[in-house]
Amino acid sequence: MKFKKIILLSSAISLIPIASLAFSMNSIHDKNFEIALEKSNELLNRLYNEKQKYKFYTYIKDEEGNKYIYIQFEKRFIIYDLNLKKIIQITQSYHKKDIINKSIYVFGEDIKDPNLQDKESFKIDLNKDTFESIPNISNVIKNAWWWASRNTIEKIGYIQTRDFRPGESVGMCEYIALSNLLLYNELFTSSTIFTDEEFNKYFELSKGESDIFESSPVFRNYGLKNPKESLPYKLWKLNNEKLNLWEISSYYLPVTRFMVGKMGSFIFESDYKIGAYYWKTIEHIKNNNPVIVTTTKTMHSFVVYGYDEKSEMLLINWLWGGRRSITLLNYWKLSESASPLKLFYTLKTKPKNFPTNFRKVFHYNNEYFTGNEMTKIYENQRKI
Questions:
Q1: Whole-model pTM?
Q2: Is residue 127 part of a domain?
Q3: Number of domains the chain contains
Q4: C-alpha span between 210 and 378 (Å, rounded)
Q5: For residues 276 and 353, what is the distance between their CA atoms, to the nearest angstrom?
Q6: Predicted confidence (pLDDT) per residue in 205-218, tens digit
């Protein structure tokens, strides 16, 4: 992944490019805020069953002069588009007002690690995940909790080229996304993608804590920790070291080559499309298939694992390796671009009947479970 030079809210991992954060407040703006606040309260109540007090709001602009309202609630921030008259982003995060007004920087060739977060700007416990990470939207995949738990660089296997090529700094988001998609399907669909030797090489088990979100295997190698032994690096090598997230071959070729000679090659097949991806994404979400999406707007590959019909928002994980990686974004704003450079990629099963043997590699309360057993435990706890 290589970013265009665009200006973003520092630490927000925000979709919206911010160029100017101040324009005068008047009665019209206040009326706009009242409308935005009412819509925000309604949506938060519907999606999270919560009523939060807003802490502050401010008007912001993007590079093209489009105007938005940033509303900070107790645990989440919302971005309201003044042109579309709708909410386009909800993220669980807290920023101080002076951070928004002052901390702006450019993502360019010298891109800073997005996972290096300004924890002082938070007023929520960064180390404590809760089930509220999954909103009450119309459609989510069955095992959505797993994607909601992918919130550290260890859990997503984050690497970039500078980890093994000093002086170079290019992202490898397509290979990180593929690595997580392969692991997900190994854990929840059919444990036929990795040999035992490969699984032990690329992943390690958790410590058996009492937190469901900490039960899944994590990546053994990531960042500066043996990056050349990591799964994203392996997939990159299988694709002849190409770094082009716009080539669909960057997705299906390394996956196909990785599964040669394995039972998984008879069970899984790639599905992809270049161009508009909304309806195909929805179709796969309904079939419990998470989808990798790449757009010109983001210059990035990320995973979609849910959507909300009423608000037209997608539930995504940016795969940055932080809590703020998990967010709800308006589809039309996300894909807004005249460029055809948009694509989706996923894996689906070919036969109706296939081996469903699963690895018991989820370590929870000092016991081992399969992924689907953990999902049942998770669902039972949500009912309490």
A1: 0.86
A2: no
A3: 2
A4: 12
A5: 31
A6: 998 889 999 999 99
